[in-house]
Amino acid sequence: MEKKLWNYVKMKNSANPLVSIIIPNYNGKKHLKECLNSLEMMECDDYEIIMVDNASSDGSVEFVKDLCPEINVLPLEKNYGFAEGCNLGVQKARGFYIVFLNNDTKVDVFWLKELLLAAEKYGENHVYSSKVLFYDQPDTINTVGGIITPMGSGLDIHFGKKDVDKYNKVRFVASPSGCSMLLKKALFLEMDGFDKDYFAYLEDVDFGWRCWLKGHKTYYIPQSVVYHKYGSTGGKMDTPFRVFNVQKNRLFNILKNFSLPKIITGFVVSVMFDLVRIFTFLVHGDFSLISSILKGNYAFVKGISKTLPKRKYIQENRELSDGQMEKLGLIASLNWCLNEYKRLGKLR
Predict the structure, then answer these.
(1) Is 21:101 a contact under the CB 8 Å cutoff?
(2) Nearest partner of 179 among 225, 120, 237, judged by Cα
(3) What are the structural domains of the chain?
(4) DSSP code of 42?
(5) Count of beta carbons in the 10 Å neighbourhood of residue 29
């Protein structure tokens, strides 16, 4: 891709609504050229690109401005994290639809077109999630969307499985993948966006969960394909930063989004889950991860007073019960989770 090769606001005599592609970035310069190159090749014309830069120190802002000045670069004065960074990007978006796309991705030529076709078919007041394949293993699934666990976290559906025909059917998922998701800008604003208190991790689980509770569905669209360099921008499983934020945020999820009986169950299961993890980390000498769990618990306790009004609003406006969500396959059973953890050989 040469400098100034094309205009990033493509409007070619089409009746399709403008789409704002929002790419959050933090020190991801090495990924940006390939990501932007793949967007250039898309079978879609009506879009703008907004790169939200969380105070990168690797020259990302200068690189993109030099590569293609037509991109709308939003340089932030500090690292707001994925959640609030995306929220700030939406404020700058002019599109009817918005798409969140990870910077460490390469999109298929029909990636965006298929998402728009799905929105046209199933309705503009829902959320649409892509099929995400591993960049270095393009025949293997990273995620098709998430399912909610009893302990408030999310599991990537079909993670690590070979991409075969039976996974090419449109289906409901509890949450879209923050790696690639499309929805109407007005819907995102109606839902108050991502919860900025999450900073990073599980903000997509929380968002999809809240959408379902308010009557908006999330569809997995297998024809929309993204290749993801999983782990290259913080996706590695056991780091203190990730463990801390996942711990804090899944507890917020329990408190905000479950009904009272499920809250009780969720916290009981959560304590058992933590004891197993702490023992496992202790055996392996991962004391920093034990500390991260405890710090996550402390951050959750500190945030309870701020979270309770959010819970009140969510529960007063919910249109779907936990039981209904379970019947739709959006909340996993504990037994299913245990089998999945065993299959993956991981504790999340």
Answers:
(1) yes
(2) 225
(3) 19-228 (3.90.550.10), 240-344 (no CATH)
(4) -
(5) 18
